[in-house]
Amino acid sequence: MTRSQISESAQRTRRLTMSAMYATLALIFTYVEFLIPYSVGIPGVKLGLANLVIIIALYEMDFRYAMAINLMRIALSGLLFSGIFAMFYSLAGGVISLIIMWLLMKTGKFSMIGVSMAGGVAHNMGQLLVAAFVVSNIKMFVYFPVLVFSGIGAGICIGIVAYVIDKRVPKQLFK
Hints:
Layout: H1 3-35, H2 50-60, H3 63-82, H4 84-107, H5 112-135, H6 144-168
Helix pairs in contact: 1-2, 1-3, 2-3, 2-4, 2-6, 3-4, 4-5, 5-6
Keywords: Membrane, Transmembrane, Transmembrane helix
Organism: Aminicella lysinilytica
Pfam families: Hpre_diP_synt_I (PF07456)
């Protein structure tokens, strides 16, 4: 093997290892959030702790790795904690959210906090679309205003923490 082949192989191994660690951390955050009793009275309102890991992976790795981490977390948390049916809600919210965050991040016009806010709203919208489809009732969108505000609030909280982590943790740890 040449030196460049070794370094390329080492880089792939490092990124795979980082992806596994991110997926594990996201799964732990999902479990912690699963244990928190939310008594807001509105389905779907939660902080979205796992999105902290996803947004950092999006900024520090790339879209493909962030999507792989997100899909691993959704599949494993569905199988371990919430069930197959809830996995579809998470899948819709998680994929739509990540795509929106990636598109906004690519423009360079939004801060990490703004990207996270949009991700929170997109996640709730994705889940609401699935809910409306499952119950075949457009009236599900009566929850939309509340879910927009909760998505913005959660996005701000997660975005601030992600921003602080991004600025304070040495970049060498992510590469």
